[in-house]
Amino acid sequence: MFDAWDVTLNGALIPAVMQEWGLDRPTAALLSTANLIGMAVGAVIWGTVADRVGRRSAFTWTLLIFAVFTAAGALAPNFALFALFRFLAGVGLGGCIPVDYALVGEFTPRKERGRVLTAMDGWWPIGAALAFFVSAWLLAATGTWRWSLAIMILPALLVFWVRRSVPESPLFLAARGREAEARSVVDDLVRRTGAPAVPYDVERPAPRAASKTPAWLEQLTRLWREAPRVTAITWGLFLSVLLVYYLALNWMPTILKEAGLGSTAALVSGAGMAAAGLIGVVIAAWLVEIVGRKVLLAVSAPLSALLLVIVAATLDDPRVAVVWLLVFGALIQVAIPVLYAYASELYPTELRASGFGWASTMSRLGAGVGPLLFALAWPVYGLATCFMVALILVVIAIAAMLWKAPETRGVELE
């Protein structure tokens, strides 16, 4: 929820900081670019840390870093420092999703894993909607965007609960040869749930030679050596599908405002787009174990991109465009939760967080550079053409997935 809240703030903040510091559109786009590139860096760092040190420790630090630097942005005296704080917040934020999905996926029975991982993303539209609604309310009440950032210190409070209540992944512990700790976690879960205790085996990891290569580079090398096809397809899916989402998230308030809606109405419309995503998550959680990951992605992702083209074509009547935007908000949140669940299942335990992290890095880099290029191309080629390019990228990535990627429904995690 707070992950979505923080990312969505970029779209809510761009019109406000443009006005306060007298920025043009491409300069204001650097705000989103700095945050998303920070997330790209963070995904690499924390995905590697999670696969080397542990999911639980990585989660704690990602949470603290992104909460502290997001709140620090409220005190920024100029745009340069503000963009720096957004970058640093992104470094923490970028690690959250790879670590979260690795941790939860490794605790979930395979028959329910798709639904659980997909349902996790139900908190994304809630956080995104809250970001728009709270920002609109605080802007109207205080006349400044700074309070929208200050309240993001709240996620730091979650750290105390995490440190007290969340165990380390037993799959991670087993993969690192820490059998006694893995058994302790499993035995405690069995005891707390009241399930009957039965004998079980803990697989010992194959011995690996010590390496002097930096951890992040070693993990990247292993991804392309041990799972090249999966890595290429996952990167393509993350890059294209999330580019579509971030273009809408970052620029839709500005697009709607320039189409004739007031500032508050544009923010509320963005909130409606995010809130409609709850419908999409429910649909995804319902269908993901029935039709499988690949079919659901193949239908929802291209249709989502097509809907943005329709939004752009109907901006002459902003009310009609907002209706199509709400449909987009629901459909894109069918695609993204399924993509996250799918990507976290494609890799073995020792590569799961870093594999997801590197795919996330590709999406953040694309989404960081994409809005900047979008701001430059929009006046020249028009909105509909820019969104059409995004649609073509999605279609190419989906075609590769259908051709070469495996289905993971009901498959036991390696």
TrEMBL record:
The chain crosses the membrane at residues 28-46, 58-76, 82-104, 116-139, 145-162, 232-252, 264-288, 295-315, 321-343, 355-374, 380-403. Residues 1-409 form the Major facilitator superfamily (MFS) profile domain. Gene3D superfamilies: MFS general substrate transporter like domains. It holds the Pfam family MFS_1. One of its GO terms (cellular component) is plasma membrane. One of its GO terms (molecular function) is transmembrane transporter activity. InterPro entries: MFS, MFS_dom, MFS_trans_sf, Sugar_transporter_CS. The keyword Transit peptide does not apply. PROSITE patterns: MFS, SUGAR_TRANSPORT_1, SUGAR_TRANSPORT_2. It is found in: Cell membrane. Its main location: membrane. Keywords: Membrane, Transmembrane, Transmembrane helix, Transport. It is a multi-pass membrane protein. The keyword Thylakoid does not apply. It comes from the Bacteria. This is MFS transporter. It comes from Galactobacter caseinivorans.
